[in-house]
From TrEMBL:
Topology of the protein relative to the lipid bilayer: Lipid-anchor
Location relative to the cell: Membrane
Protein name: MetQ/NlpA family ABC transporter substrate-binding protein
Protein's organism: Leuconostoc falkenbergense
Entries under InterPro entries matching the protein: Lipoprotein_NlpA
Entry's family note: Belongs to the NlpA lipoprotein family.
Length: 282
């Protein structure tokens, strides 16, 4: 073999070795995409979309891609979680989850607190709770997930009393009704429309805002204290996933100061960020 051929072969070998070394020790690209977590929520509006955009951006910085799946019925997110169609959900409070687990013998667990919707009562006819007349009509939701909360607000306002051993009441659990109030059970999104007809109604703030009204028009606001703990909304998942890195990243992404700032000061829904360490409402 001539010197020239030996030189060429040697040069090729050096280049090949150098390439292998670079591939082994040089700058690396990610071998796979970010981990993806599918989260179930209830269908909302533009305010909800903006909030989840902030959360998704936070998660992305942690190396987690959030895929949001929306539902229109409150029975769907937990069923989807149990079946494995989603990895976590964020739509329910402690009372609803406890009731669900008992009824369906499921193992869904809370992994992080999110918001509290302070209960409010509205009226087009009266300016004060004291003005609610005998035999007055009260508008409340017919949904299992919200009716109990509505009744607890009415109890807090002194209008009714509920059996002491019941945490998620229905109308049947009312044990004292001094004014003999009549209850009109309606779809949650229909309650605002009935305000001209009823004496008072318990309405979710998001529907008040959506109708163009101000949440400050409430004639009663339920105080936030230990008695309202059961109404705190939570992030939930299954026992098998509760300690996963992805779930922890999701909780961290949600429980961030920029999310709290949006909830407390910019969303206009009347919701309050209540997780441990959340900034105080400005």
């Amino acid at each position: 073999m001539s010197k020239t051929i030996k030189w060429v072969v040697g040069g090729v070998a050096v280049v090949a070795i150098a390439g292998i070394a670079y591939a082994s020790f040089g700058p690396q690209t990610k071998s796979k995409d970010q981990e993806t977590l599918t989260v179930g929520i209830m269908a909302g509006d533009k305010r909800t979309d903006k909030q989840w955009k902030i959360i998704k951006n936070n998660a992305k910085k942690e190396g987690l891609t959030l895929k949001i799946k929306t539902f229109t019925d409150y029975t769907q997110p937990n069923a989807a979680l149990t079946s494995g169609d989603i990895d976590a959900n964020a739509f329910q409070h402690y009372i609803f989850l406890n009731d669900w687990n008992k009824s369906h013998k499921s193992n869904i667990v809370p992994v992080g607190e999110t918001i509290l919707v302070a209960g409010r009562l509205y009226s087009d006819k009266h300016k004060s709770i004291k003005d609610i007349p005998e035999n007055g009509t009260v508008g409340i939701s017919n949904s299992k997930v919200t009716q109990g909360r509505s009744l607890l607000v009415l109890q807090s306002a002194g209008l009714i009393k509920i059996a002491s051993n019941v945490k998620d009441p229905t109308v049947k659990d009312i044990v004292e009704n001094k004014k003999n109030l009549k209850f009109k059970e309606l779809a949650t999104d229909q309650l605002v429309r009935t305000l001209p007809e009823v004496d008072v109604a318990s309405i979710d703030p998001s529907f008040i805002v959506g109708s163009g009204r101000s949440i400050k028009s409430a004639i009663y606001v339920q105080p936030v204290n230990k008695s309202t703990h059961g109404g705190i909304n939570i992030i939930a998942t299954t026992k098998s996933k509760k300690n996963s890195v992805a779930i922890k990243k999701f909780v961290k992404a949600y429980q961030s100061d920029n999310v709290a700032d949006y909830i407390d000061n910019k969303s206009g829904t009347g919701e309050i960020a209540v997780w441990k360490g959340a900034p105080k409402v400005q």
